[in-house]
Amino acid sequence: MNSSVLKITNRRGSALGTGFVIKVDDNGVYVATCGHVVASCGEEILVDERNADIICNKYSEGLDLAVLYVKGLKLQPFELALVGDTKVKVIGYSKIVGTSKKEMISNIPVKHDVEINSVKSIKLYPNEDICEGYSGSPVLCEVTNNVVGVVNIKSGQDNYAISSEHLSELIDVSINVACQNNKIKLKTHLNEVNKGIVRSKLQEKFDRAMASFSTQKNTWVTPNIDRNSEEQPGDSDKVDVKSLIENPTSTIIKSRQQYGATSLAHYLVKEAWCAEQPSFWLYLDASHLKPHKKEIDKEVNKALESYGLSNEDIECVILDEFSSSLNNGSKILSLVNDKFKEKPIILMYSMDTNPLIEENVQLPRKFIPLYLWSLDRKGVRNLVANYNSEGAIGDDSRVLNKVVDDLEALNIPRTPQNCLTILKISERDFDDSPVNRAEMIGRVLHLLFNVDDIPHYKTRPDLKDTEFTLGYFCEQIIRSKKIYFTRNQFIEKLSGFCRKKELDLEVSIIFDILYTNNIIVLRNEGFCFKFTYWIYYFAAHRMLHDNDFSTYILENLNYVNYPEVIEFYTGIDRRRDSALSIIANDLNKIERTVNRKCKLPEGFDIYQFAKWLPSEIQLERIEKEISEGVSASSLPDEVKDEYADRGYNRATPLNQNLNCILEEYSVSRLIQCIKAASLALRNSDFADTNIKHNLLNSVLQGIKQLTNVLVALSPVLASNNSAKVEGVHFHLYGSFSEKLDVKLNQIIGCLPSNMVDWYVDKLFTKKMGTLLNNRMTQESDNFKIHFMNLMLIAKRPKNWEEIVAEYILSVDKNSFYLLDVINALEAEYRYSYTSQSNINKLGSLIKLCAGKHRHMLKKPSVQKAKNLPDTLLPERHI
């Protein structure tokens, strides 16, 4: 919604204000702002550089509000609401060193029902100054993002805003009360002792939700909740967890598995009760509910009785563990909604990552959409500090760097669970990092089965025997696609297998260890593995020991449904040559199938014709971007953490579903096969060199083919902002021009960097620098060579700068490839968290690109480029 906040100025640049979209029609948008802003612009009003018409201006009548109309804009309008006892934020424009910049001021306390000259107003108490350019800015409810007022005046040291109800009087838009805080008091009288008992029970449930491994202490860090999805590029729009508690509103919080949604749900319940004015939030687990009114009533009454409370005491309901794959999920949600029509419901929604499944749950009421993100570096720092409070592992900064580096190397998201897993391993082997996820999980199991305590009267199971046996069990899950089981089924099936294989294992102890450590959990349908990566890990071991199952996974492209199985299988010993050969052959076949279906011409490569032809204005702009030479290592921790996360790719969630890719969708199979092949290659350090080269070439050819498909779709993307082909949907995100020809060129130009974003973390590790370098010496395809150089820029293995410099010198001074390289270098220079040495190398290569392109170097070389002025370097963004 930030894009719906617009800059208002005039052609002379003498005025600056802010407006926001309040209504849309087929031809354009209606923009609300302050009347004095419109008056200051004169007759040359511009809204985001577009001409605007005045619909009304009530400034001369004592009401400082106006509405403008802008043709040709298509933006989402804000909704209006009345302000309540909740905090707000303001988004507006201010002038910084002669240029205007949009910024947000958040967490602002308010005083409402203030009247100034017969105008209902809101008094704002920001923690920083609200500047002049903010006039006309929307005052937004922190939770709902609804407009509750319009910033208009500053009196002395105080800021004020006009209430949104005056705005609704000017134009035909509705106003609601969603932002009002209607906290209810407990109807049931509880003495302090009973309140303390409720508090203890809620704390116990919260502790249980956070529990991971049985011998590991619980550690809580405040999660990142945002209005935008992690996969959506652009700035985040964070929501304060406290504001959710202070102003409960019907909200859907979407998250990936392992992101800590259940812990967050119990935290909200606990904190609402522990507030200065206690309120009771009812927690319901959707996976434990049955789709019948009587059964839901029974669960609700059971929960209320355990606390000594009644229905009238409920302020909010949290429905956890909900997903589109939940049996009878829509019916359960509908019944819960009917029972609590007058109460806000917070829906903890687990997202499905199957690319072919469109989540289509019918919501029975309006929910505000929010997203749970993985941890930023600051969150990881807090978690490490709490876990390592007694210095059990090492210095906090060293431990933080190890956790972040290991997660990046393993290509897994910064979820609390993954961070705790790395910390658990580090308790014994701090200086030794796992090389892949298979090894990481193996180390965790080693701790659970060989180090952590089990009852003295039990026989400790052998880990290798356990992995072998569980591999058989997980094979049955994958073949049958039935993920639920009872304890008796688990014990009977594995006991029978052990008798057949003549293994002496106490299967019940294996179950108990897995259950105690939350590897197996209880759901409504029965027991299941909490995260599907456990199924894939044990199935990979089964492939190692059973040729029939290995053939089942590797033949007929079945592994495309389960890329993680291949990741773990190749990671066990890092030399699965036969699997790599099969995957390479399959990927080649799919690539040819896609090419045949899409009917792209032979040798289709638009980038060989693209050129770098910047205007003089663009060249002058580059000159003005002066680097401040900021060294990340000298920054304070909080600044360093924000700075480090500029280049962090959050879009790597773990898939917790047993996916099935439909055969007719060849583009989808291509995408999944590239993923499986990439994961296999990054884990195969010890595989045959020729086989690795063949697989890398197949991956590169697949990526090139996928790029060409998107080039072919680019006219559709430019026209509709989305396109569908062979069962896959592609959507545009970010800022693109409104002019179709410019937009088309922008789409085509950003495709190679998008391919790097999609696949570099799955494909590349810093140990693969030599493989890439050798591959480039044998490669003749310009696109593939370019893509490999982009990967080197992104990951920077040993001697990366020498290879990239050689590539820069080899391409034409006016080619698209040189432009794309300098764009990639500048992005890394601006945002990457890296050593000062790498910053210097990036700077030298930027100068080399610019010097070559602009004829500043007669015979370009890295050494000569270093002497070029620093004005060619972009600004380091902190």
Description:
45% of the residues lie in helices and 16% in strands. The protein has 29 helices and 26 strands. Strand 11 (110-116) and strand 12 form a beta hairpin. Helix 8 packs across helix 9 and helix 17 packs parallel to helix 21. It is globular, with a radius of gyration of 29 Å. The two termini are 24 Å apart.
> Helix tally?
29
- Helicity, as a percent range: 40-55%
**What share of residues are in beta strands?**
15-25%
User: Whole-number average pLDDT?
Assistant: 83
CA distance, first residue to last residue: 24 Å
Radius of gyration: 29 Å
Main beta sheet: 7 strands, antiparallel
The quaternary structure here is single chain
List the uncertain runs.
354-358, 614-663
**Shape assignment:** globular
Main attributes?
single chain; 878 residues; alpha+beta; seven-stranded antiparallel sheet; 29 helices; 26 strands; 45% helix
Quick overview of this protein structure:
Helices cover 45% and strands 16% of the residues. It has a 7-stranded antiparallel β-sheet. The chain has a 7-stranded antiparallel β-sheet with strand order 10-9-13-14-15-12-11. It has a 6-stranded mixed β-sheet with strand order 17-22-18-21-20-19, sandwiched between helices. The radius of gyration is 29 Å and the shape is globular.
